[in-house]
Design goal:
Structural class: alpha/beta
Helix content: 25-40%
Number of helices: 9
Strand content: 15-25%
Order of helices and strands: EHEEEEHEHEHEHHEEHEHEEH
Strand order of the largest sheet: 3-4-2-1-5-6-7
Number of strands: 13
Oligomer: single chain
CATH superfamily of the largest domain: Dihydrodipicolinate Reductase, domain 2
CATH topology of the largest domain: Dihydrodipicolinate Reductase, domain 2
CATH architecture of the largest domain: 2-Layer Sandwich
Shape: globular
Bound molecules: NADP nicotinamide-adenine-dinucleotide phosphate
Distance between the termini: 15 Å
Length: 330
């Protein structure tokens, strides 16, 4: 029998954590036993894994004894506190938060793009930001073919990107109930909120800067110019992005379609005259990232415009983390 692993999910009751449990089971990851960790609020809860009920345990410093791989998705402050404790206990941490992504010694990995980076890990591997993963799944194959120079991206990010409570908040507002305080700064139903995460330098948001910093690190392309505008939209799940990218080598739409059709984890859906293009309702729950509306503009020689949609809870978070774990155990 092939080797099986003791795995933990930290933040198991959250939007990403629940998806991780589903992906581990669905991809038949070789789990010997699964430890589910969350806050004291979840004490007494059970979650299903492979038809079995597993009790949720309260996260603490002793939680990692004997755990070989831990998938963290409980926010950056929990990762900062507990990932080093886990790594010292011999656990390999795959962290979904932004806590370690920008540390030079921590690999930031999208397996289809830079799985080689995993080899250099010191016990912690970072999973990139969801919008960055979805954009790079389409951009990286084009970059390999024609060397990307600049990217202007606008995102249309689903509420589930802000966690399980944000999904409930949208449902409540759509049903006409009061906005739930403390999640979004304005009503989200029938609205758009052009601020995700805190405002940082030059009035960009941290979410927008994550797309810049992380794209450069994952592509090993420190000179890549990136300008992002990140917008929360009243969609349940799957992030959409409008991307305008320039390349050193010219690309035509047929060549872009050919490159992307051959890229693992990417599907091209591009026949706009027949109303064929990706949309969040069709992409929600799917593993692949979908690209459509592929154009080259006569106004911007060397530029390609496209629309990319990916389920940020799957490829943008849980699936990417489990794929990193698969690369580790392979
Ligand atoms: N949502 C996305 O699409 C997405 C995508 C990529 C990355 N991420 C990142 O993944 C992380 C989790 O996001 P999420 O959307 O899943 O959030 P969420 O739905 O709010 O879930 C948060 C999870 O963290 C747990 N938690 C909170 N405080 C804790 C504590 N003191 N000790 C132990 N566990 C604690 C919660 O447990 P309780 O239920 O017990 O409170 C819950 O399981 C964040 O870092 C986020 O940035 C999210």
């Amino acid at each position: 029998m092939s080797r099986q692993f003791r795995v933990a999910v930290v933040g198991a009751t959250g939007a990403v954590g629940l998806e991780m449990i589903d992906v581990l089971a669905g991809r038949e990851f070789p789990v010997r036993d699964l430890t589910l960790l969350a806050s004291a609020r979840s004490k007494g809860k059970d979650l299903a894994f492979r038809g079995e009920k597993i009790p949720v345990e309260v996260l603490g410093p002793g939680s990692f004894k004997g755990i070989e791989i831990a998938l963290f998705s409980a926010g950056a402050s929990i990762s900062k506190e507990y990932a080093p404790i886990a790594a010292r206990a011999g656990t390999i941490v795959i962290d979904n938060s932004s806590a370690f992504r920008y540390e030079p010694e921590v690999p930031l990995v999208v397996p289809e793009i830079n799985s080689d980076a995993i080899d250099g890990h010191n016990g912690i591997i970072a999973n990139p930001n969801c919008s960055t993963i979805i954009m790079l799944m389409a951009l990286a194959p084009l970059h390999r073919a024609a060397r990307a120079q600049s990217v202007v991206v606008s995102t249309y990010q689903a509420v589930s990107g802000a966690g399980a409570r944000a999904m409930a908040a949208l449902e409540a507002e759509v049903m006409g109930r009061e906005p739930v305080a403390g999640i979004f700064p304005h009503p989200i139903a029938f609205n758009l909120i052009p601020r995700i995460d805190i405002i940082v330098d030059d009035d960009y948001t941290k979410e927008e800067m994550k797309m810049t910093w992380e794209s450069r690190k994952i592509l090993s392309h420190p000179d890549l110019k990136v300008s992002a505008t990140c917008v929360r939209v009243p969609v349940r799940r799957a992030h959409s992005e409008s991307v305008h990218a320039t390349f050193a080598e010219p690309l035509t739409p047929p060549r872009v379609r050919e490159i992307l059709a051959a890229a693992p984890g990417v599907q091209v859906l591009d026949d706009p005259r027949k109303d064929v293009y990706p949309m969040p309702l069709m992409v929600a729950g799917q593993d692949d990232v979908f690209v459509g509306r592929i154009r080259t503009s006569p106004s911007f020689p060397g530029a390609v415009d496209f629309w990319v949609v990916g389920d940020q809870l799957r490829k943008g978070a849980a699936l990417n983390a489990v794929q990193i774990a698969e690369s580790l155990v392979r």
